[in-house]
Design goal:
hydrolase, nuclease activity, alpha/beta, 389 residues, 15 helices, five-stranded mixed beta sheet
C-alpha cells in the first residue's frame, strides 16, 4: 500500500470515529479537539510509508558523454588526472572489500571519486549531489569522507619538501623567476573560512571578524606545495603558526638544508632568520635603491605562493572558499585539495579558469608584537645578498 492510500484510509477511519461521538456537542473547544485528534490520526498513517524523493537516473552515463572541457568544468580535473587519482585508489586497496546486502548497488571507486571531486570543486549542497547521483545524502557524505580520509593519510607521498640533492635544482628554478639566489621555497599562510559549532569557536574568529583556520604552506617554483600545516584557529598569527610547525623545528635544527647556501622567503608577517629572508621594512628615512630592488626581487619570487598556489587551490576547489563541516573534516577536505592540486600540476593539468578571483584571505594577520626582524645572522645574509644585487 502506497503513501496516498494510507492517507485516504486514515481520513476514512478518522471520520468514522468522529461520527460516533455525540453530535449534540456544540462547544468550540470540543470541535477544536476533534480537529486536532483527526489531524494526528491522519499524520500517523501517513508516516508509515517513507517519503519518496524523485532523483535523476543515469547521470554516470551522462558523465561518460561529457566533452573534456565539460568534464573539467564539473569535476575540476582533467580526465587524465581523474584516471591517475583512480589509479592511486585502486593500487592502495581503497575499499577492497565491500559487502552487498541488497538494495542500492554499492558505489564503485570511480563513482565515489566523481562525487568527492564534484563536492570539492563546487559550493553546492549535498542534496544536489544526492539527486544527481541517485544516492542518499548520507551516502554522499560517506563517499566524500572516505576519499578525503584516504588522501589525508597519504599526503606525505604527494607533498614533499625538496631533499638535499634537489636543493640546487629548486634554487635554480626560483632564480629564473627574479634572479633571487638560494631560494628553496616560499612560505605564506591563508585562511579557510569555516562555521564552527565547537565550544571554543571564539578562537577561530580571526582579525577580520569571520571564522577560519590557517593553512600554512611552503610552495615550489611550479606552484606545487612542498609542505602544508593546517587547522590552527584563525585568531593565530602566521608567524605563531609557523613556529609550531614540524618544518620550522627541523630547519632550526639544520635538518633540512645549509643556511649558508639556501633559504626560504616570506613576507613581513614572518621573522627574519638566516634561513628565512623577508623584505626590508619601510622606515621614516625611506628605503635605499638597493633595498627596494631586494624587496622587488623577493616579492617577484614569492608570488608563486599567494597569487599562484593559493589562488589555484581556491579557484579550482571552490569548497576551500567556505566550508560547512566539523573542524576535523574541514582539515581533511583542505589537505585533500592540496594533494590533488599537486597531482594535477605534475600531470600538466592546470587551472583553466584563470579569470576567477576567489578571496584568498592571505592578509588576515592581527598585530604580533613578538615578531623579530633584527636577527643578526638574518641581517648579515640579507645584506650580503642585497650588496651582490
Amino acid at each position: 500500500m502506497n503513501r496516498k492510500s494510507l492517507v485516504i484510509l486514515g481520513t476514512v477511519v478518522s471520520n468514522l470515529l468522529t461520527a460516533n461521538e455525540d453530535s449534540s456537542s456544540s462547544s468550540s473547544s470540543s470541535e477544536d479537539d476533534d480537529i486536532q485528534v483527526r489531524a494526528v490520526f491522519v499524520n500517523a498513517f501517513a508516516s508509515l510509508v517513507p517519503e519518496v524523493h524523485p532523483r535523476q537516473v543515469g547521470y554516470l552515463q551522462v558523465i561518460s558523454q561529457y566533452s573534456c572541457q565539460d568534464f573539467w568544468r564539473h569535476f575540476r580535473v582533467s580526465r587524465a588526472s581523474f584516471g591517475l587519482l583512480l589509479h592511486h585508489l585502486q593500487t592502495d586497496n581503497f575499499r577492497s572489500e565491500v559487502a552487498y546486502h541488497g538494495g542500492f548497488e554499492p558505489m564503485t571507486n570511480s563513482e565515489m571519486l566523481l562525487i568527492a571531486l564534484q563536492y570539492l570543486g563546487n559550493q553546492g549542497a549535498i542534496r544536489l549531489l544526492a539527486d544527481k547521483f541517485n544516492r542518499t545524502d548520507s551516502s554522499i557524505w560517506n563517499a566524500v569522507d572516505l576519499i578525503c580520509k584516504f588522501f589525508y593519510q597519504k599526503q606525505s607521498r604527494f607533498i614533499k619538501f625538496p631533499a638535499r640533492n634537489e636543493m640546487r635544482k629548486t634554487a635554480a628554478q626560483f632564480y629564473e623567476k627574479a634572479n633571487f639566489p638560494g631560494v628553496v621555497g616560499a612560505v605564506d599562510g591563508c585562511h579557510i573560512e569555516i562555521h564552527p559549532t565547537t565550544k571554543n569557536e571564539l578562537a577561530y574568529r580571526n582579525h577580520k571578524k569571520f571564522h577560519s583556520f590557517n593553512l600554512m604552506a611552503v610552495v615550489l617554483p611550479d606552484r606545487t606545495f612542498s609542505y602544508i600545516f593546517t587547522g590552527f584557529p584563525g585568531s593565530s598569527h602566521d608567524s605563531y603558526v609557523f613556529r609550531r610547525s614540524s618544518l620550522y623545528q627541523q630547519i632550526e635544527n639544520q635538518q633540512r638544508f645549509n643556511y649558508d647556501r639556501y633559504n626560504l622567503i616570506g613576507d613581513s608577517a614572518f621573522p627574519l632568520k638566516a634561513w628565512l629572508l623577508v623584505p626590508y621594512k619601510k622606515t621614516a628615512a625611506g628605503l635605499t635603491r638597493s633595498q627596494k630592488e631586494f624587496n622587488r626581487r623577493l616579492s617577484a619570487s614569492r608570488i608563486v605562493v599567494e597569487n599562484a598556489a593559493f589562488g589555484d587551490l581556491k579557484n579550482r576547489f571552490r569548497r576551500c572558499q567556505d566550508i560547512y563541516a566539523t573542524i576535523d573534516k574541514a582539515v581533511h577536505i583542505v589537505v585533500t585539495c592540496c594533494v590533488i592540486h599537486n597531482i594535477c600540476i605534475r600531470n600538466g593539468d592546470l587551472n583553466h579558469n584563470l579569470h576567477e578571483n576567489a578571496a584568498l584571505h592571505c592578509d588576515v594577520n592581527p598585530p604580533y608584537p613578538g615578531l623579530n626582524h633584527n636577527n643578526q645572522a638574518g641581517n648579515r645574509k640579507r645584506e650580503t645578498i642585497r650588496e651582490r644585487m
